[in-house]
Design goal:
Rossmann fold; alpha/beta; 2 domains; elongated; about 250 residues
């Protein structure tokens, strides 16, 4: 990422738009003058990118969706969609960004509310041992899976979805695009809306606004997406009251 950011800076661009936390940090370290508009799921204050959301300071602003804050809501929706779920395997990987926090702990904190037993399935970098992880899931007798969004695990969503379908268990993902790859259900910020909001920041900056004076915006639009094709494959009937609340249904 640092080399890619450096290449962009050599072109003397007027503004950088970045969605990878690694790239955002590389850009922040590389320039104090070129405006940076970020689109991220991580807390930019916690990982040291901005001073505060209201007054970011420096040359960095943008749109943030605090994905970890939705962990409890995701467990609630999973339980509503599949009431028989009692044990959930959370597939996660240690963050590469300092201060990003432990995603499993966020789910663990909310699990007791919904009487769910969580099993930590930590994927090792740089290449997860999927056979070992799936054996661990079988041994723990989990009857649902959740995959945490990050650059490593996002590459393997189809692999995890295929395992979940084979075992006929629900698989919740943290992004609507992953539902299309075989996940059963997701609840997350609307990605298209976040990028549209970021475009407005670019417009303001190119018209003379300073990033330091533009508060970091938190995503306000979230969507529930359900894949009925996957539900059919695992023999699950989604309750009508859950389907009625879905923003999008894949049939």
């Amino acid at each position: 990422m640092p080399s890619l950011v450096a290449e962009l800076l050599e072109h003397k661009v007027d503004v950088l738009i970045l969605s990878s936390p690694t790239a955002i940090r590389a850009a922040k370290n590389a320039t104090r003058t070129i405006p940076i508009v970020m689109i991220t799921n991580q807390d930019p204050v916690a990982i040291g990118l901005v001073e505060s959301l209201a007054r970011p300071g420096g040359n960095l602003t943008g749109v943030v969706s605090l994905t970890r804050d939705l962990s409890g809501k995701r467990l609630e929706l999973l339980k509503e969609a599949a009431p028989k779920v009692s044990g959930v395997g959370v597939i996660w990987a240690s963050p590469t960004t300092l201060g990003a926090g432990n995603a499993f702990q966020n789910y663990e904190a909310a699990a007791s509310t919904f009487k769910l037993k969580l099993t930590s399935l930590q994927a090792q970098r740089p290449k997860p041992d999927w056979d070992g992880l799936f054996r661990a899931a079988d041994k723990a007798r989990v009857n649902a899976l959740i995959s945490v969004t990050n650059a490593l695990l996002n590459q393997y969503i189809k692999k995890i979805a295929d395992f979940a379908i084979q075992k006929r268990i629900p698989f919740m993902v943290e992004g609507s695009n992953f539902v299309e790859e075989g996940g059963l259900i997701s609840y997350a910020a609307n990605d298209a809306e976040r990028f549209r909001r970021a475009a407005l920041y670019v417009d303001k900056i190119l018209k003379g606004a300073k990033p330091a004076d533009l508060p970091v915006e938190q995503a306000m639009k979230f969507e529930l997406v359900i894949n009925l094709k996957t539900a059919k494959q695992i023999g699950l009937t989604i309750p009508p009251n859950v389907l009625a609340r879905a923003d999008r249904v894949i049939r």
